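tool_log.txt
---
The assistant was asked to compare two proteins side by side. It first ran the structure predictor on the initial sequence, then on the second. Raw inputs and outputs are pasted verbatim so the downstream comparison step can read them without reformatting.
(1)
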Amino acid sequence: MTAASNTPDFVVLGLAGGIGAGKSYVAAAFGRMGFEVCDSDAQTRSQLEEPQVRAALVARWGAGVLGSDGRIDRGAVASIVFARPEERAWLEGVVHPRLKAGRAERIAAARRAGRPGVVIDAPLLFEAGVDRECDAVVWVEAPAAERLRRVRARGWDEAELARREAAQWPLEEKRARCAYTVVNADGQADVDEQVRSVSQQVINLIRQRRAGTSRRPA
């Protein structure tokens, strides 16, 4: 049980899935149910604009990581970190502690607000150990052809998709670590129904776990 989940029925869920599976789409479905959505991509973009972080990136990689507007060029950063694992590790060391602190604040605020829980949409959920902050992780499934179609809309080709996925854990390993699955292929109504079912299953399981803990002798 996570420290964030010590109030009745409040749950912290993580989302995992292949690139282009539509984790943000599923996160939005949880949001429609009242969950606080913690979008790590959005948080990362915000962190890259922090003066201290921006200065650290420029000090390490030079002014080439800045765009014409003086802001961090995420494309330039991606070209560095996906080609050089040691640079990716360095960047994660700068950004991930800040993201973790931000998540803790969001979780605490959601609990105070009486929300049913928080859903964490983080591309590197397992790789960064964010799953340890969650009561359960939900796998977002989508056919490979559909995932490729979606990333092509971002301007990526099949080789770019393969390159980025090679920098993450194998899909089979991540899938095996997830207790629940939402298939994101048939539209909003179907996804919403799956999300309702999964959220209720998780809440019921957490209730059972906590009830069992409360009955243990001191």
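(2)
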Amino acid sequence: MARNETLFRLSAVEARRLIGGKEISPVELLEACLARIEQVNPAVNAITATCFKRARSEAKAAEKAVLKGEPLGLLHGLPTGIKDLQDTEGLRTTYGSPIFARHVPAEDEAMVATMRARGAILVGKTNVPEWGAGANTRNPVYGATGNPFDPRLNCGGSSGGSAVALATDMLPVCSGSDTGGSLRIPAAYCGVVGFRPSPGLVPASRRAHGWTPISVIGPMGRSVADTCLVMAAQVSDDSRDPFAGPVDPESFARPMPVDLGGLRVAVSEDLGFCPVDKDIRAAFRRKVAAFKGLFRQCVTGTPDFGEADRVFDVVRAVSYLARFQKWYAEDPDKLGPNVRANYEQAAAMSLADFAWAHSEQTAIYRRVQAFFKDFDLLIAPTVPVTPFPWSQLYATHINGKPLANYYHWLSLTYGITLTGHPAISIPAGLDHKAMPFGLQIVGPHAGDRLVLGAAHAMECAFAGVSALRRPVADPDKLLATRGKVDFTTPITERGQKGRA
């Protein structure tokens, strides 16, 4: 029985192996995770709407399938959390917005349906910022989600609830999505892994602007191996996404073997254009000094990102203009300040701005891709500042200098978003404030397997280096905060000006 009570600590890969070998039951695993959620979630507020009764029924069915020797899916019997921006049939999906506070979708979106078909057992939804806007997981429906290393601090976003659920061992599998860094940033802040895949590998059946894939769906995990398993369970060829195509799920199920000693790596503190805190720069230099010997070549270098800030302003704003025009026209106060910031920014733009942005985005992509003729990987910090209190909506200054808007502090990740290159954030020890430090690893066009394989090899090497190994939150310290952090403290800014 004692063993059953700690099953929640199993990695996704190990749990799936034990289920397939009839060494543990999906029912036992689910009950261990539900008990863990009951114990830990009040301290972090990561999991929102739940479907425990349905999950128990599905776990019993999964157990019967194992005992009957039936074919088992990649995630067979694994308890799963789905980001609250992603539609789940029969389970409340709010997008963090009061407009959809009681919304229950009639069907799963494509990625969710694929994960379920491959064995995932949906347990609940994971918290997000309102409409996924900004890298601070807090909204007027469910409140804020706290960082597992200090629940008073920002856990990142917009896949913050998923990152926290993984980091605190509440669930072995969680989904995410990424526009400006929404998989990578919470992974970095919580000490887990977040992978932004190439567009189309994980089809998006609900993306309104199907031909502008700055937003992608992707996996998270406690390790790169877990992340690969989830990735394999998400990929498919779904014609509703114009970027989707034939793909072999099994090719992602395990990290591709990569010899780090044969790789040429460029490292950059700021990608040549991003504001980065001086202490984060110093921490990154220490990390580089600790891992540079792993590679054939490891030198300072960065592509030319041109006017990436302005391009992202335009490309991001267009999607907000399309999505929120109706609600803004009815009543701007229905939308939070981050959403209004983007909408109002978009409303002031012209078709000429849009045409220029897409041309410059193409030029940036081509320069970055040309960079990979000389290098196999590009490595940078994932985030430019240490986690700040979630009561502060976003970072307003870096090194004493004001930032342009509420998302300018995300430029390390949104610069990569613009190019569409695959990128992953992996844990690399702690920063100067003893908070998790994330490394962003970027690969060439369509180099998803290379990025995952190299990240796995680095993770294995880092495990033996105290300054680089994955940090784990102190469970006793975390549980001691239960009831001491009010996640519903004033976070509704209705009526405030949208533009920062």
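---
observation on (2): The radius of gyration is 21 Å. Residues 491-500 have pLDDT under 50 and may be disordered.
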